[in-house]
Write a structure and sequence with these properties.
The chain is of the alpha+beta class. It folds into two domains: about 120 residues; about 100 residues, Arc Repressor Mutant, subunit A. Helix content is about 70%, strand content about 10%. Strands 3-2-1-6 form a four-stranded mixed sheet, with helices on one face. Strand 4 and strand 5 form a beta hairpin. The longest helix is centred in the middle third of the chain and has 62 residues. The chain is rod-shaped, with a radius of gyration of 37 Å.
Length: about 230
């Protein structure tokens, strides 16, 4: 049921995105059509000058002919200028369309990323494999390699073994397993310090905070599936 609902939500979201992009293109196309329709005709000035020539055959003086020639040249210049304006407007509209579509795409990506981060925060990291190599002092988390100190390797190994047994360890119990002493003789703060150092060694705050979960009044555990853990 949840899978079907999620699929329907994704399908609706995809349709809304496509509809939004199509709407942007349609609006800009309509604006471009209205703009070009209302622009004056590039040959309007030339047509008026030509009409002057036709309707005024008696303009035969040198000054009058020179004036008509200047008007004709001005009409040609106006026509060329208006044509260049049309091209510039067309380019700006195409550029605006591309920017708006890119903005919508980036907005969708940001929303998807935020939702993804929200799911990670709620469920923890989706770990496909966690391999602990004590001899190499390295941990492979999915495709990421982390070089750890001996103390951090020991702490992570204890947490991994506890996770495979479905156990939650307190700070005192973690210190007890590592030091070999009784849990009653160990300080809770010592185990908490080891957890802090492990998180500091992992470096990435998101990974360290979500990988090692702190369960209130119970202790610490790895927030991953126990079946993905391998220890060597």
């Amino acid at each position: 049921m949840n899978t079907s609902s999620a699929s329907e939500t994704r399908e609706i979201s995809s349709r809304l995105i496509v509809a939004g992009i199509v709407g942007i293109v349609v609006i800009l196309a309509a604006a471009a059509i209205l703009l070009f329709i209302n622009l004056p005709d590039a040959n309007a000035f030339n047509m008026r000058v030509e009409r002057l020539f036709v309707e005024n055959d008696d303009l035969t003086g040198n000054a009058e002919i020179k004036l008509l020639e200047i008007l004709a040249q001005s009409g040609t210049a106006f026509s060329d200028t208006l044509s260049s304006y049309r091209f510039v407007i067309f380019v700006l509209l195409v550029f605006a369309t591309a920017l708006l579509i890119a903005a919508v795409a980036f907005l969708v990506l940001l929303i998807a990323l935020n939702r993804r981060m929200g799911r990670i925060e709620r469920k923890g990291i989706e770990v496909n494999s966690l391999a602990i190599h004590r001899d190499q002092k390295a941990v492979y988390l999915n495709d990421f390699e982390f070089k750890l100190t001996d103390a951090a390797i020991e702490t992570l190994s204890v947490l991994a073994e506890a996770r495979m047994d479905d156990e939650v360890l307190s700070g005192a119990e973690i210190e007890s397993v590592i030091s070999g002493r009784s849990a009653a003789d160990c300080d809770e703060a010592a185990g908490a310090t080891r957890i802090k150092r492990l998180r500091d060694t992992l470096g990435n705050q998101m990974i360290s905070e979500l990988l090692v979960k702190n369960i209130a009044r119970k202790g610490y555990m790895l927030a991953i599936d126990k079946d993905v853990i391998r220890m060597e």
